[in-house]
Amino acid sequence: MGRKFFVGGNWKCNGTVAEVKKIVDVLNGADVPSAEEVEVVISPPFVFLPQVKALLRSDFAVAAQNAWVKKGGAYTGEISAEMLVNLEIPWVILGHSERRALLKESNEFVADKVAYALGQGLKVIACIGETLEQREAGETMTVVSEQTKAIADKIADWTNVVLAYEPVWAIGTGKVATPAQAQEVHNNLRSWLVANVSSEVAESVRIIYGGSVNAGNCVELAGQPDVDGFLVGGASLKPEFIDIIKSALVKKC
Ligand SMILES: O=C(CO)COP(=O)(O)O
Fold first, then answer.
1. ipTM of predicted assembly, 2 dp
2. Nearest protein CA to atom 2 of ligand 1, as residue
3. Which terms are listed as keywords in the entry (predicted)?
């Protein structure tokens, strides 16, 4: 097996130069499992990416929170995948539910972004997840498999993809999915990948969970066999993010 535990910190639209320095200082001083045991990726807003990249310890990587769907040009306000590559930013988060909901990014648009970013050599954290209404209507698997299918239809190689299952009802709400709820969806996603992509991809792709992860709930979630890590929002701005990184050690038990 050997899926390396993955912990991403999505800072969303937060931070000042001084706050960024403070968070990076905490990360740089932390005693965490080695890069063999956990892959840590920090995702500040675009404007802070060069600052974070310059200051951050070398065993942690950085990610952008978005990228334009094709080659740059006359797209005011957008940031292209080529620019991220030029700045040596290795990762990008795509399809976050906040962008899907607020900026009306469709499954197809997100999939086009994933395909384009991969084609430029970026590694992608691709986000999927259902709303509360969809969960209550029993549509969770339909929704997440449609989101995943849109991506699967447009990419041939999953090596540089991490799939982030982030139920919308759990994001920023303090209402975390139970370990059983997360495990069920992750396991179903793996079965979907077996049936629709390949058993090799199903076995090797990391499926991480996001939505109100904190120091208090991360260990139990990390203990689930199909939870390969986390995408953390609010808690990634706080020192407790270190404890979340350390939950990687649960996999060794
Ligand atoms: O959206 C998320 C990470 O991308 C999760 O956010 P919270 O951890 O703040 O719920």
1. 0.99
2. 233
3. Isomerase
Residue 145 CB partners (closer than 8 Å, separation 6+): 189, 192, 196
User: Is residue 232 lining ligand 1, measured as CB closer than 6 Å?
Assistant: yes
| Domain ranges (residues) in the chain | 5-252
**Whole-number average pLDDT of the chain:** 97
What is the mean pLDDT of the segment spanning 183-197?
Answer: 98
Q: Is 94 in the pocket of ligand 1 (CB under 6 A)?
A: no
User: Is 133 an active-site residue?
Assistant: no
pLDDT (tens digit per residue) in 79-110: 999 999 999 999 999 999 999 999 999 999 99
The arithmetic mean of pLDDT across residues 185-212, rounded, is: 98
Bridge pairing between strands 60-64 and 38-43: parallel
pLDDT value at position 1?
A: 53
204 burial (CB, 10 Å; 0-12 / 13-18 / 19+) is middle
Q: Does 229 contact ligand 1 (Cβ within 6 A)?
A: no
Say yes or no: CB of residue 225 within 6 Å of ligand 1.
Answer: no
Token readout for 127 is 């986000």
CATH number of 5-252: 3.20.20.70
- Residue 186 has φ and ψ, to the nearest 5°, of -60, -40
96 part of the active site = yes
